[in-house]
Specification:
Length: about 240
């Protein structure tokens, strides 16, 4: 409902930044009850007992949880990277003497370029060095979002999504050990959250996967021993081949 009905109207009036914040709040409000129902699956149990009896089913539900976590982390990284670009442009607008330059920070329905082509204020803003520096390396302290800024220039949605998903997998697996955040508090807290999520996943999911695989191997071994005992019993009783 929000994507199809609410956002198209908001994009034309208040701009993409307001629409982005609204969408983020809606998604977070949806995730809270979902996580509440999903946490019992985290441990593989519910109030009535085990959710899945099959070891492979438990293995795949844990693998899916790991994939979902990578998706959330990668999506948050891309979203927060866009916010840092927006903040950089707002700082450039504040430090410049250009009037009403905040209306140029997003494209609305995508026709902003054609609408502002004859505007002298737009020409001054598009040539502003501080605004251009927001998309240059080492000009603004993006920290862990530096690759996200470069990713916004890609036209393919698939490329942007797949790379964000890869980034989420990589940071969860390495506990964000290869990332150095800037002094921005929100970025530091996001990095700390990645480390906490990574530790939680390794403590629960990887341990559960190992237990499930061990249970599967043990079940196969038990069946093999039981089959051998039955065969020895039938040979000892000298049962006919057809009866065996």
């Amino acid at each position: 409902i929000i994507i199809l009905l609410v956002l198209p109207n908001i994009l034309g009036s208040s701009g993409a930044n307001y629409a982005k914040n609204l969408l983020r709040a809606a998604i977070l409000l949806q995730y809270i009850p979902r996580l509440y129902k999903f946490l019992p699956l985290f441990a593989g149990q519910s109030s009535t007992g085990f959710i899945f009896e099959s070891a492979w089913a438990n293995f795949f539900i844990n693998l899916f949880t790991f994939t979902l976590s990578g998706h959330i982390v990668g999506s948050g990284w891309y979203l927060f990277g866009l916010q840092r670009v927006n903040q950089c442009l707002r700082d450039a607008c504040h430090n410049s003497s250009i009037q009403d330059c905040k209306k140029f920070l997003d494209c609305g329905h995508g026709n902003g370029g054609a609408e502002y082509s004859q505007d002298q204020t737009w020409k001054s803003w598009s040539g502003n060095q501080q605004a251009s520096d927001c998309f240059e390396k080492d000009k603004f302290s993006y920290g862990i979002y530096e690759q996200a800024v470069k990713l916004t220039t890609e036209n393919s949605i698939i490329t942007r999504y797949v790379y964000s998903l890869f980034w989420g997998f990589q940071q969860i697996s390495t506990l964000a050990g290869n990332q150095t955040p800037s002094y921005f508090v929100g970025e530091v807290l996001f990095t700390m959250a990645i480390i906490g999520v990574g530790l939680l996943l390794f403590a629960f999911l990887i341990g559960n996967m190992q237990n499930f695989l061990q249970a599967l191997v043990k079940r196969r071994l038990d069946m093999s021993l039981r089959r051998r005992d039955v065969e020895q019993w039938m040979r000892h009783r000298r049962l006919p081949e057809q009866l065996r």
